[in-house]
Write a structure and sequence with these properties.
By secondary structure, the chain is mainly α. The protein has eight helices and two strands, in the order αααβαβαααα. It has a two-stranded parallel sheet. The longest helix has 15 residues. The N and C termini lie far apart (37 Å).
Length: 159
């Protein structure tokens, strides 16, 4: 689905673009997509000389679920001394948190196509091997234990 844009970026930027065809939910539950992206990135970075790429110029990028995967791959690789450091990550409308679907951004954009608030919660459930029967709990925020909500409120809150 992204071949044309990847080819365009590669051609116009004179870049090497590696597009990972990771396994998709709901057929392949978490952590399948993450493992595919992580393994592909590690393989590329360990064999970077073969591809003629400057190790100081590796960027991971993704949109939607791919943006989320790019973020988690970046975090996973941040402490790896055996691999080159990533130069940057480009995250295009990633889903970065599923703790609270009542934050202002979800409320302000709840009816904005394409990714309605309910649809975002549904996809999060699909990705995490959850069941759609739990949709209302997720939308209300009752799927997160109170102690976890307190622990992460510094980072995930309307403030």
């Amino acid at each position: 689905s992204h071949e044309k844009i990847c080819r365009y970026i590669a051609r116009e930027g004179e870049l090497v673009v590696v597009s990972v065809g990771y396994r998709l939910a709901p057929e392949h539950k978490y952590p399948a997509a993450y493992e595919d992206c992580l393994n592909a990135t590690i393989h590329f970075m360990k064999n970077i000389e073969h591809y003629g790429v400057d190790p100081a110029n590796v960027i991971v990028c993704g949109d939607s679920a791919g943006g989320s995967l790019a973020a988690v791959v970046s975090q996973t690789l941040a402490g790896r001394p055996d691999l080159p450091k990533l130069r940057a990550q480009i995250l295009i409308y990633p889903g970065l948190q599923a703790l609270d679907f009542n934050l202002p951004s979800y409320q302000q954009n709840r009816g904005v196509p394409l990714l309605f608030r309910e649809r975002a919660a549904f996809f999060a459930l699909q990705y995490l091997n959850g069941h759609a029967l739990h949709m209302q709990e997720v939308l209300e925020g009752s799927h997160i234990p109170p102690e976890m909500r307190l622990k992460y409120r510094k980072w995930v809150s309307p403030d």
